[in-house]
Automatic annotation (TrEMBL):
Family listed: Belongs to the bacterial solute-binding protein ModA family.
NCBIfam families given in the database record: modA
Protein name: Molybdate ABC transporter substrate-binding protein
Origin organism lineage: Bacteria, Pseudomonadati, Pseudomonadota, Betaproteobacteria, Burkholderiales
InterPro entries: ModA (IPR005950), ModA/WtpA (IPR050682)
One GO MF term: molybdate ion binding
UniProt keyword Signal present: yes
Length: 260
């Protein structure tokens, strides 16, 4: 073999070897990127969207988020919707029909948040510091906006019953189908008060009066789990693990929820 040919072949072999070593040394995410379908509770939309973007940037995986109320999420799960993991109110996992669609492993606590009251920006802030004050404020309000067909909305209705004003508030309640509609209704003056999860009420156009008094406070717990039919179990679990990191906890806290 001629010398120049030997050198040329040797160079090609060396470069190929170096590339091979480089590929082996790459993080798994750089070689394999999954597209994960995620079902999530509407109250988690702001922090989860932010966290998903950061996870995509660092992992190489892609997340497709779909938000809904608890009944909507249960319907999707039971109806055979394609999903890899969920970050949903615990009530979804309590549904007997939905349970078989998740892996049998324990759920992971992600976040929790309580109920509160908000008014339109610039409006007087009523007293809700005690159960009696909250009861009086709600009865004096011309209208309230909430989402009864959700885990948080169900908690609101239970709180009204505990205050003894469940029946009286029915005529005052502007029924909404999504959390964002509460914000819109209060900001535009359609409803005097927004009564829902505190983090949802922390939005432009609204001022949070405060959380419910401890005696009647109810919290929604968001938990994560993996679909029994996922084809990307490892990637799904890696996102759930990420949601439990200190960095993710900081985002969750900054968006008005309590981590874990």
């Amino acid at each position: 073999m001629k010398l120049n040919t030997f050198i040329k072949n040797s160079s090609v072999t060396a470069v190929a070897s170096m590339l091979g070593l480089a590929i082996v040394g790459l993080p798994v995410a750089d070689v394999y990127a999954a597209e994960l379908q995620v079902l999530a509770g509407g109250g988690m939309s702001v922090p989860l969207t932010e966290l998903a973007a950061e996870f995509e940037r660092t992992s190489g995986h892609k997340l497709v988020l779909r938000f809904g109320t608890t009944p909507e999420l249960i319907k999707l799960v039971v109806g055979g919707a394609s999903f890899d993991l969920v970050v949903v109110p615990r009530e979804v996992f309590k549904d007997a029909a939905a349970q078989s669609h998740f892996e049998s492993a324990p759920t992971i606590d992600i976040a929790r948040v309580g109920l509160g009251v908000a008014v339109r920006s610039g409006a007087p802030r009523p007293d809700i510091s005690t159960p009696e004050a909250l009861k009086r404020t709600l009865l004096q309000a011309q209208s309230i906006a909430t989402v009864p067909a959700s885990a948080a909305g169900a908690q609101v209705l239970r709180a009204l019953e505990r205050l003894g004003i469940g029946e009286a508030m029915k005529a005052k309640t502007k029924v909404k189908s999504a959390p964002a509609q509460i914000v819109e209704a209060v900001a535009q003056g359609e409803a005097e008060l927004g009564v829902f999860l505190v983090n949802v009420l922390t939005a432009p156009g609204l001022e949070v009066v405060g959380p419910f008094p401890a005696e009647v406070q109810q919290e929604i717990e968001y938990v994560a789990g993996v679909s029994a039919n996922t084809k990307d179990r490892q990637a799904a679990k890696s996102f759930i693990t990420y949601l439990g990191t200190p960095a993710a906890a900081a985002v969750i806290k900054a968006r008005g929820l309590s981590p874990g």
